[in-house]
Give the backbone structure.
Amino acid sequence: MIESLHISNYALIDQIDIDFAPGLNIITGETGAGKSIMIGALSLLLGDRADSKMVTDATRKSIIEATFTALPEGIKEIFDQNDIDWDPERAILRRELSPNGRSRAFVNDSPVTLNVLRTVALQLIDLHSQHQNLLLASPAYQLEILDSLANNGERLAEYRRRYGRLKAAVNAFRKAKKDLEAAQADEEFTRYQLDQLNDAKLQEGEQEDLEHQREILSNVTEIKEELGAINQALDGSDEAESAIDLLREALGHAENLVDTLEDADALRQRLETVEIELRDIADTFADIDSQISCEPGELEAIEDRLNEIYTLQRKHHVDSVEALLTLRQSLEDKIAAIDNSDDTLRELERTAKQARTLATEAAAELSQARRKEALRFASDLAERAIPLGMKNLVCDIQVRPADLSSTGADAVEFLFAFNKNQEPMPVARTASGGEISRLMLSIKSLAASKMQLPSIIFDEVDTGVSGDVANRMGQLMARIAEGGIQVIAITHLPQVASKGSAHYKVYKEDDDVATHTRVRPLDESSRVDELAVMLSGSHIDEAARAAARSLLGLQ
């Protein structure tokens, strides 16, 4: 519910602050006092377009802020999705208009886009005026009403789960079929590419190994010369002493000093270790030297193999054998898919048919519940709306078969006739604004007990009625409020105004500079006077006050 509303620097409003009550709140005032300005300001919280001309004082911002309590279930998800600070006790919506035409929106002091502000506000406010009567002609709104009255929440949720699986299965079948058609169109070329890659008999790591061998064979003369020099230096030849020979000679001299010098034995052992390591190094270089050879044609064969690999890489726009092997596997998968396509498509089609069967069954349950509720709703709506000055009203709630969609397999349409011998027609083609307003009031009174409605604001929906009809409309608004839904009604009719649990008067007040719109809550005495004015005009006498007290149920 709306706990409070603040409007400042907006049109004729320099500043007003209203604390609303639970139940039915009534707002009255003379024509032109500023009631429509208040509704216009409140509409900005619903994301309506801002007009900088409404900013009165060009030196400061215009601010519209509303505080809401008793937040509806599910609204926290919107806060979480949009990273808005969450307070389970209240939500504060604010719109700021700058004189330069800029507009900013906030929810709980978190900056948000207008779309987010509107999404949040629609969970909290249902602003209904004659300008919004086309909502009743919306098929989506009609279906929402019917499902709410039929308690179709769980049925609809289960259908949507099944419909989602159907969509996924159909998409999988269509994609597989499309992919297969594309693969079949390129099948000959795919097989040709695969044959080339298979004939190449590629191996992981092959390219790096071949490039290493090519590097060695291209420089084999220099490498052999360096290895020969190393072997001669380490192991020597018949003509010169080698490093190993000199080390052995040093080792013999060290043995001669073992009995003489204290550290000689330890040093001798270290020389032995060096000799062993040097011998191992010499043997390793000798083995490398023996393994390196250049057979006639070997380098040419390596070059040919690498050229074959490089050609394949350029052709397929890759830079490694591993990428070619991955491509080969992909081509094999394509060919396998083509070869097994009949079985694959049959299985996907079977899955889609099963999903369609399950979705159709759930849709049938929805349709049955909707058709049953449509009959009851048409009767209840006529019963509730006829006393509101539409004695010839006929309601026909149509539920016709339609293709499966996210809402089921039904096309719902509300048809009405307001005159004798008139065929029921869509509401937009047959009803006046006042008739639609009364229909909406009747619908909301029926739906209030089953739909989680936000605070409802009725902006002069009682225009064009009077007397007993006005009294009945007031009773309907009070009935909605008694169901725990806050209702705010702007009205010119005393019969409606008398049904409120709280009453506010909008009026104009002049100062030395300008005219301002003001709002004040009415106590019992001032409320009697306000109703007396509404009943008799500007002159208030005791008879008018007595009539007002009678409407209010006062002695």
